[in-house]
User: Which sequence fits this backbone?
């Protein structure tokens, strides 16, 4: 019973941390509550986020604020076509050691931070984009045959503009798959716009308070994995993921849509993201277990970037969002 | 085990028991529905069952045939338990706490996170009553089972299956055996009414033969062979029947004679008719109104005025016996002819029509026996009373026949054959005598089962409408 009380306290701490984070973020960011929650979930799950939205919606501000609130190191990389991989990972430079001998010393790149903002990631060449691959997956970079560990926790928040496609390099599927979530930033509502005007044209707000540190994040990350998940709920998540595959899955309407418009369905990483995110959501909501509702809510950010649609979908203007909503509608929670 | 875990186990056990019970009820209701549906669909064939009570056993039989299939297919599985637990979560909005706790209990998880889930689920389900919260939700099959049962019972009560069978039987072309059975039943009915013992016996034998043939599905050729033997038997019986009534005339005359004999007996039984002289006088008066009896009386040179009560009685008895014997003989002759035609059926095309027209009691029917609207078969405003301004009944030409038929509703009816009053100069019997004679015949008919109750009053009214309320004295 003592263990139960202890874990209950932990859960309560995690929830309180998240509530405080939301409150602090609300001082700087107007709206986007759901987005902030999903970014935090990705962080406590050890994932990375791809943010998609038009310029000026506060993507960079949000990421920077998150770094401050969490007391984590933050770096920003503005991706351009001439950006080189070494500009991200760092490089060996020739320096003099104390004895006067010339030696190579590793100069760490901007990737060596807890939170890395890869702004307009699709503007860099695929070679440079790929430099982030190892960092995102292995949480390490290899330069000159030497492996350098990155910070822990480490999170990449990449942004891309869905409108300007000229002079961009769409991210390779392998790299997209490594993002835990793909989050869409919506244009603010009328009230939110008015509040943004008030907030940004008045006196600068007071500095943000630190809510939780790196150690706290890592602890929550551990607790997330401890959240129990019922087999039936897990089965629902599996069926949802399988339903996105045109060749597999139960024969229902959701599959028919997938068969028509999907070229490749979600990878197993999609299922991992979905379940972890659902666990984190239940934890941050103060619940001891994962529910069907958690799975349903976490499905779009987990899978939308993992569905590769065919030309027919492109021609008919069918988005991944639509397919996911169809899948959610057609796949029953309990068989 | 913690208190919450114990509570949870207990509640889950209650829940599963309740859900299993509901499932069993649903399965049984479903089986009942499909059993009744199968029974209703096969209703037209139930008449083929050997025993009448078998019809009631059909749904029971269908129930027991379907039961194993349903019970095996819809048996309770582990997934059903999981579904039931998930339903509790949905109903109580527990965010799958119960479902997760149930699985953790099954796995004997002892992690702190698992214990917390079990604890929370136990607390939430402490006041949970599955019977109150998860009520029965009958499927459409279960809802339709009782109405279907009522429909089936109604149809059985109405004998729809048998009627359908009869319709099918009639719609199909009749076999020789069926025709024989039909004829034999008509023959028996007629023989019973008229007291024809030989004909009744032959009718029964013919029906037995026909029934046996139908049940054994004997082919027509074999039946014809048996019919030949039966025909000989009928012929022998016909020859042995009494035939001592000379000048009997047609079968109708014989029937008239029998009716008149009844009327004559009434006269004999009257208290005032005990004295010989008075009886003789009354007898001669009445004899004038009984043409057939008078003819027989004249043929046998009887002097009515000289006969006593006992003499007259023995004379009437003897005459009745002779008339019955003659009728019996002629009926047997008809049966013989029918069998003859039946055996010829198939050999010539007109055989069937011959058989149909040669049915008992039908050979005397006029061709124009269609029911037509006329004053005699339409109901008046007041039965038995002549309406003012209405034309009197038309004169019936000699030899023509009029029929009083069933006039209301549907169903079988028998016509009472009445001959029209004779034209002047062509008959030596007065109109009053004829009407009185027919009236007696009609009264005799009214006392038999051949006249439907609903028509008895109409027939009486018809005679009253003729304007002669009493017999001529």
Assistant:
């Amino acid at each position: 019973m003592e263990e139960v009380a202890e874990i209950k306290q932990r859960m309560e701490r995690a929830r309180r941390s998240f509530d405080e984070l939301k409150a602090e973020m609300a001082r700087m960011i107007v709206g986007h509550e759901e987005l902030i929650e999903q970014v935090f979930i990705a962080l406590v799950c050890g994932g990375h986020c791809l943010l998609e939205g038009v310029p000026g919606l506060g993507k960079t501000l949000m990421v920077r604020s998150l770094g401050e609130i969490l007391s984590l190191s933050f770096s920003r990389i503005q991706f351009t076509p001439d950006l080189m991989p070494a500009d991200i990972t760092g490089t060996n430079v020739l320096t003099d050691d104390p004895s006067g001998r010339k030696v190579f010393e590793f100069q760490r790149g901007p990737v060596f931070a807890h939170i890395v903002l890869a702004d307009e990631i699709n503007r860099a060449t695929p070679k440079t984009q790929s430099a982030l691959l190892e960092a995102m997956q292995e949480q390490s970079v290899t330069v000159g045959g030497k492996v350098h560990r990155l910070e822990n926790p480490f999170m990449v928040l990449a942004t891309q503009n869905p409108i300007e496609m000229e002079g961009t390099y769409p991210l390779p599927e392998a790299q997209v798959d490594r993002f835990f979530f793909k989050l869409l930033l919506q244009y603010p509502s009328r009230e939110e716009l008015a509040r943004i005007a008030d907030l940004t044209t008045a006196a600068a707000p007071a500095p943000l308070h630190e809510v939780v540190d790196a150690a706290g994040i890592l602890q929550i990350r551990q607790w997330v994995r401890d959240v129990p998940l019922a087999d039936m709920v897990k089965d629902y998540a599996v069926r949802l993921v399988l339903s996105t595959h045109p060749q597999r899955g139960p024969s229902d309407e959701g599959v028919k849509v997938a068969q028509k418009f999907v070229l490749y369905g979600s990878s197993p990483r999609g299922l991992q993201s979905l379940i972890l995110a659902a666990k984190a959501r239940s934890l941050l909501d103060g619940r001891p277990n994962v529910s069907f509702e958690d799975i349903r809510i976490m499905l779009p950010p987990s899978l939308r970037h993992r569905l590769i649609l065919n030309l027919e979908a492109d021609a008919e203007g069918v988005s991944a969002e639509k397919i996911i909503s169809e899948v959610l509608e057609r796949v029953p929670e309990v068989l | 085990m913690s208190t919450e875990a114990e509570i949870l186990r207990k509640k889950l056990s209650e829940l599963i028991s309740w859900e299993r019970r509901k499932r069993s009820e649903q399965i049984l209701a479903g089986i009942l529905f499909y059993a009744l549906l199968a029974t209703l669909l096969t209703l037209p064939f139930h008449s083929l069952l050997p025993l009448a009570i078998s019809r009631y056993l059909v749904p029971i039989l269908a129930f027991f045939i379907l039961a194993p299939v349903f019970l095996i297919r819809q048996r309770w599985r582990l997934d059903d338990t999981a579904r039931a637990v998930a339903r509790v979560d949905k109903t109580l909005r527990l965010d799958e706490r119960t479902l997760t706790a149930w699985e953790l209990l099954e796995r004997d998880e002892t992690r702190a996170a698992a214990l917390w889930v079990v604890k929370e689920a136990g607390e939430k389900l402490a006041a949970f009553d599955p019977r109150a919260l998860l009520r029965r939700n009958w499927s459409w099959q279960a809802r339709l089972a009782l109405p279907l049962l009522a429909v089936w019972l109604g149809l059985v009560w109405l004998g729809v299956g048998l009627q359908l069978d009869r319709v099918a039987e009639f719609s199909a072309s009749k076999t020789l055996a069926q025709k024989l059975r039909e004829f034999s039943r008509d023959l028996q009915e007629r023989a019973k009414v008229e007291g024809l013992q030989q004909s009744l016996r032959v009718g029964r034998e013919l029906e037995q033969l026909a029934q046996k043939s139908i049940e054994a599905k004997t082919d027509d050729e074999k039946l014809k062979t048996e019919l030949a033997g039966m025909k000989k038997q009928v012929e022998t019986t016909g020859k042995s029947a009494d035939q001592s009534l000379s000048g009997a005339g047609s079968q109708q005359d014989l029937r008239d004679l029998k009716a008149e004999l009844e009327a004559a007996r009434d006269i004999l039984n009257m208290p005032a008719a005990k004295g010989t002289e008075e009886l003789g006088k009354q007898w001669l008066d009445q004899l004038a109104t009984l043409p057939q009896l008078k003819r027989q009386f004249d043929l046998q040179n009887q002097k009515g005025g000289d006969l006593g009560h006992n003499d007259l009685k023995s004379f009437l008895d003897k005459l009745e016996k002779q008339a019955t014997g003659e009728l019996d003989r002629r009926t047997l002759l008809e049966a013989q002819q029918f069998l003859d035609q039946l055996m010829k059926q198939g050999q010539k095309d007109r055989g069937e029509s011959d058989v149909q027209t040669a049915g008992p009691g039908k050979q005397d029917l006029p061709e124009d026996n269609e029911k037509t609207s006329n004053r005699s078969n339409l109901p008046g405003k007041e039965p038995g009373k002549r309406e003012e301004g209405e034309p009197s009944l038309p004169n019936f030409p000699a030899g023509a026949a009029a029929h009083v038929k069933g006039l209301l509703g549907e169903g079988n009816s028998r016509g009472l054959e009445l001959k029209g009053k004779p034209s002047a100069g062509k008959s030596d019997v007065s109109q009053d005598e004829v009407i009185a004679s027919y009236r007696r015949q009609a009264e005799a008919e009214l006392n038999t089962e051949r006249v439907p109750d609903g028509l008895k009053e109409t027939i009486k009214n018809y005679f009253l409408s003729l304007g002669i309320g009493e017999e001529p004295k």
Observations:
- Chain B is about 65% helix and 0% strand.
- The two ends of chain B are 116 Å apart (CA to CA).
